[in-house]
Amino acid sequence: MLSGILDADATLAVRGDAAEESWRIVDPVLASWRAGEVPLDEYPAGVARSRPLAGAPLIVRDAGRRCEGAQGRAA
């Protein structure tokens, strides 16, 4: 990584506007978790989940659909 930085390899960095946009999206989620407004499904590190993901029914229900404005291929 250090070698890439010294060689000015731009593929190892994100543009400033991309970083700001990422934080614009992530900050409200983090704030909601900190405030206890959104439950976070937790399990100990290194231990497999003992139950299915809480969102599994949504994944099955919406399989293959694209969200409005989604980029790339549908799942």
Outline the fold blueprint.
Blueprint: H1 2-6, H2 16-34, H3 56-61
Fraction of residues in H or I helices: 40-55%
The number of helices is 3
Q: Count of DSSP E strands?
A: 0
Q: How would you sum up the global shape?
A: extended
Q: Sheet bearing the most strands, described?
A: none
Roughly what fraction of the amino acids lie in strands? under 5%
Mean pLDDT: 75
Describe the structure in your own words.
By secondary structure, the protein is mainly α. The protein has a domain at 2-41 and 52-61. It is built from 3 helices and no strands. The chain starts with a helix and ends in a 14-residue tail after the last helix. The mean pLDDT is 75.
Summarize the structure.
It comes from Microbacterium kyungheense. By secondary structure, the chain is mainly alpha-helical. 40% of the residues lie in helices and 0% in strands.
